[in-house]
Every structure is written in C-alpha cells, then in structure tokens.
Amino acid sequence: xxxxxxxxxxxxxxxxxxxxxxxxxxxxxxxxxxxxxxxxxxxxxxxxxxxxxxxxxxxxxxxxxxxxxxxxxxxxxxxxxxxxxxxxxxxxxxxxxxxxxxxxxxxxxxxxxxxxxxxxxxxxxxxxxxxxxxxxxxxxxxxxxxxxxxxxxxxxxxxxxxxxxxxxxxxxxxxxxxxxxxxxxxxxxxxxxxxxxxxxxxxxxxxxxxxxxxxxxxxxxxxxxxxxxxxxxxxxxxxxxxxxxxxxxxxxxxxxxxxxxxxxxxxxxxxxxxxxxxxxxxxxxxxxxxxxxxxxxxxxxxxxxxxxxxxxxxxxxxxxxxxxxxxxxxxxxxxxxxxxxxxxxxxxxxxxxxxxxxxxxxxxxxxxxxxxxxxxxxxxxxxxxxxxxxxxxxxxxxxxxxxxxxxxxxxxxxxxxxxxxxxxxxxxxxxxxxxxxxxxxxxxxxxxxxxxxxxxxxxxxxxxxxxx
Length: 468
Prior knowledge:
By secondary structure, the protein is of the alpha/beta class. The protein folds into three domains: 4-146 and 273-344, FAD/NAD(P)-binding domain, CATH 3.50.50; 159-270, FAD/NAD(P)-binding domain; 348-461, FAD/NAD-linked reductase, C-terminal dimerisation domain (Enolase-like, domain 1, 2-Layer Sandwich). It has helices spanning 14-23, 38-43, 45-60, 79-103, 162-165, 182-193, 215-227, 281-284, 322-337, 366-371, 387-392, 420-432, 437-441, 452-461, and strands at 4-8, 28-32, 107-110, 112-115, 120-124, 130-140, 144-146, 159-160, 174-178, 197-201, 231-233, 236-243, 248-254, 257-263, 265-268, 272-274, 307-309, 351-353, 358-363, 376-382, 398-404, 410-417. Strands 1, 2, 3, 4, 5, 6 and 17 form a seven-stranded mixed beta sheet that branches. The protein has a five-stranded parallel beta sheet with strand order 8-15-9-10-11. The protein has a five-stranded antiparallel beta sheet with strand order 18-19-22-21-20, with helices on both faces. β9 (174-178), α6 (182-193) and β10 form a beta-alpha-beta unit. α1 runs parallel beside α9. It is globular.
C-alpha cells in the first residue's frame, strides 16, 4: 500500500487543507461520506443564505409602496421553486470544488473513514466495499452534527433540526425555536419574514449570548425582533407537555413565571456535537475531551504526531466557523510540509450573523478588553445618521468601535445594520492590521455609502465627529 496524506472530511477545512498540500507538492486524498463542501455548503452557510435572500426580498415587498412600486396582487412564496433553486446552486458549488480538487490532482473518495490502527484508515464505501488505506499523515476535518435537548428529540416532522428547516416544503403557521444563538436567531428572522409566527427561547440572559459580542448588539436585535412580532423568552426553560396531530404545547418557565406556548413545529437550534465517536480514535491513539472534542496543540497536531485535527471537531473553545476551519487547514498542511506562512489569531476572527438587520463583529468586546486590563475608548454611530441607509430604507442599527486608549489602535468593531456582513470586510482589515482610529478618520470614504459609518465612528473617537 502506498502511503498518502489522507484528509477525512471534504468541508471548508478539509478540502482547503488538501489544496494547500497540493500547492506544497504533496499528494492528498480527501475522504467524504456525504457531499463535498461539508455542513457549510450543504446544510449551513450557503443554503441558509439562499433562504435569507428569499425571505428578505419577500419581506421587502411590504415596503414597495414607499419606493413607488405598486403590485397588482400580493406576492406568494413557492417553496418548491426555492428548493429547486437551492439545489441548483449547491450542485454548482459542489462541481466547482470537485473541479478544483481535480485540477490539483487530489483524489476524492466517497465513503466513511475510521481508524483501523495508528497507520491505516478503513473506508466503508457506498457500494459496501471496505478499503484499507495506509497514511503518512492524516488530517481529521469530519465536523459535527446538530445536537438535541432532553424531551425534544428529533422526529424530523414536528420536532425538527436546522437541517430540516433548510428543506421545508411549506412555511409553518407557527414555530417555536429552542436556542437563541446564531442559528436560532437567523432562522427566527427568516421564518418571521416568510410569515410564520415565531417564538424564540433562550436559556441565558440575552439572545446571542456570545461573550465576544457587545451586549448592545443583542439588545438592538431583540428590539428589531419585537417589531417583527417575534416573541423572545430569555432566562427560560421549556418542556413539551402535549402533542396532537395539529399542535404542540410547551410549558415555559421564565424568571419563575410559568407560561404556555402552542405551535405547529418546534425547531431545536442549540448548537452542534462532535462526530469523533464515528472515527475509532482510540485505535489511532488520538485523545479527546469528555465531550468528544479532539485535543490538539497550537499547530493542530493530536496526541498521535502523524494525525492532525481541524475545524468544528475541535469544539467551541476555538471558533466553529467555516473560514476558521479553512485557515486551520492551511496551517496544518504547512506544518506537515514544514512551510509555516499562514497565521491565525483567534481573538481577531470575524463573525457574521445573517439576521435582519445583519450583524458583523470582530476583535474584543468592552467586557473582554476590561478583563484583559486594557483601557479602552468606545464610541458608536447610528445608521439613521447615514444618507445611504435612508435611501435604501434600512436605518435600524449602529456601529460600535472599541480602541485601546493609549495606542489608539482599533481592537474591536461590532456592527448591526444593513449589509453589516459586507462592512465586516473593512472592519477585519482595521482590526487585524492594527489600524488606529486617527488613520480611519483620515481615510476618505465614498459618499453616499454605508461604509461611511465606520469613518464617522473613527471621527467621533478622534473628537472630530460630524454626523454622529
């Protein structure tokens, strides 16, 4: 058997790692049990954004009169057409990735891989064949699956996962979403804009309870949710008390007060769990923590020096985002080949949340900066000060910039508002390249654009605020 560098998982971590290996002169094999592209392409980032684009357009039709557009009849949603569009896009993206792999001479094997021992992978193919493949190095990028909570086990009809939400054939009249994190909030926005009556349940004190995100952003989003008639329950626990052919009934306990909610469907969006139990890691001498997340060093090397692990299977202590996995894959590949050029600072990884309005954030929150004993300056500008925001009819939200007081370097940017995910590009450069707010204030931004809000916030920090 020829030794190969095997990559388990063809998501944005795995296939990027394989490509980087090929660029560095190594032969790589990608083993994927489902479709190339992983959760991100097939069950997450891309299909949810297709749904988001539809829901935003559909919701916008209610405002057409304000833009001088008159519809003769009310628009209707055709989810079968949407699902068809989604599948065409996903197929195109998959073919694109496969073409890139083929261009680099990377073999793609369909099958489920596990460790026979510390040097050999056993691959079960869809044709029920078993292949044994000896590896020189192996990169584990096998990802995660949706987690459940007690009393809300998936039946994939009435109690559903985020994957099921992406395959809806009709919009439920009412739905309760368990989990007010990123996935739960994104689907709350999408479904409310499509006409569903949405209840959102979060066990902690605020929705989007992300320590690195400014609490003001969560408050802003909750205020916008209320405008969309999304019922938000915080500090809340829920149990299923009744289910019949038509409706589900939940009992909620919110700050000691009991309430009942009825709905047609329940979506559990409480995060992800490791798939490491499918890999027979003990056979390879690879260690995990008590929750099954693989333990690595800073270069993503596991307890077996020939095996690396990247991406979501490292768990939430890192950054369970597609773009993070891609950088981790590059670093692992470069460590295998002794070519260390890619750097990754987990403190400065951008995060985009595709709610309405959108959210983009990077760097430190004021709370984390204070914990690190950094003296900070903090300013914000509301989108309602932007002429472009008024022109497009999206004035909700704000931009917050946090800077180190002494050096004036920008260490955190938090945005909620129109096209926040696109504004995150400039925000990422500002934070990752250690730009100071004086330089930002003196950088000419085109008018009228939404990006002016960042310049305006820089001007305010510099004591030269104009429109804010």
